[in-house]
Amino acid sequence: MNATEPRRRRWPRSVRARTALAAASAAAVLLAGIGWWVHHDLYHQSTRIAEEQARNNLLALVDQLKEGAVPGHRSAVPYEVVATGRRTAVASGGGMEDFDPGARHVLPAPSALSASPDGGADWGYTIRPLRIPERRDYDPGHGLDLAGGTYPVLYADIWAGELGSDKAAALGVTADATLRAYVVLLPDTAEAITETTDRLLLRAGLAGLVLIAAAVYFTVRIALRPVEAIRVLTASVTPSDPRERVTVPATGHEITALATTINATLQRLDDAADRQRRFVADAAHELRSPLTTLLAGLEVALAYPERTDWPATATTAARQTRRLHALAEDLLLLARLDTRAPVSGSETVDLAALASRLTEQYPLTERPLALACDSTAPAHVHGNHDDFERLLRNLLDNAARHAAHRIQITVRNEDDRVVLTVHDDGPGVPPEDAERVFERFVRLDDARSRDHGGTGLGLAIARDLAHRHQGTLTLVPRTLGACFRLRLPRAPAPAGE
Q1: HSE (side-chain half, CA atoms, 13 Å) at 313
Q2: HAMP domain: from which residue to which, for each copy (predicted)?
Q3: How far apart are CA 490 and CA 245, in angstroms?
Q4: Using the 8-state DSSP alphabet, how is residue 241 labeled?
Q5: For the chain, which ranges sit under pLDDT 50?
């Protein structure tokens, strides 16, 4: 690779890998969201439980103090009881005793009270963050290091006056002192639980992602096996022999629809290839017939020049050349129509006026025929004028070859359609051949053959031109002769008409 060429990102190319990667990515986002929610909810719940435990410990401390009992040092949570007028703590434990008991109490003393702070209520406490100061008399040993940290603290005040002098003396405070019981709420338990849960969730999430990716990979792999079989079989289809068909699964899912669609497509290709082979064979036959006649006449004339009627030979050659020219033009037009190219030079055409003009100008030199056009009003359609003229000429040529005495053209406006019919009084077309007459190079067993100068492509071209202009061309059943009906979308009249 050239050093100056930018490096392309390498992404998985297979559908299996891409689907597995997409599923794993979506699962990772989902699991990350769930993990974040679990983390915060668990931390909140753990903190609430820790606060509830601290509240129960505070309640127990208050009950002991009201009984005049000094709480012991053993406690599940750090606590300290301080009082006004007293330098040292009344009691401490749960890690707060690691401060020197003979030194000043750690947490601030309350203000002096002259009555019960709760106004006679049974229970009340306050919670707010407090910083535990760092002091030289602190030695946590192997315990929890509390100094220097800021923690939520629950506290409740007790007026010694309601305890009585004996209980106040037992607690080592004066009868008018105010006691405050502190309980420190440690987040360590909630953080430890949350951290442990996070590690478990992380390991479970990674394992889940691997399992999801693997499950999706192999599921898609199994699901795509019919697609791979279809790919292998369709790869063996060739333009000259599109007869292979894929096996349609009986499961009824999307693969079944895919197989059915591919089979239908292969069938259309097969039909198209068959039509193309017949068309090429028929075209070769049609070209060979005038060429053979032309070549034979010229070879005979050249072999016996003194006995040749040269004007008659030239006339025959000219007639066969015109036939070849007409056939070549028809083949080129069909090739252009088969490309499904958009209509060029779209304009508004008065089909009634066009039919009337062609009726007046149509040459009837071989035999006398009555050619009439019946139209009551202008019939405007959108499209190419030359295409419509070619379409009508083909219908007239077909009718003129097979009519006995009369050809009738009728043009009418019917709602949003323009309907044109060409009716001759010839031998007609059997009902079973009503559609075959529009096929290319079709020979019928009756008089409607191409022995009278037709190329066998006129009606096929006429129908293709009708379809190209969003119309239809059909053979209408009649008891006498043949009647071709052309239906086209009606267009508004041009401005000024």
Answers
A1: 16
A2: 221-274
A3: 43
A4: B
A5: 1, 4-5, 120, 445-451
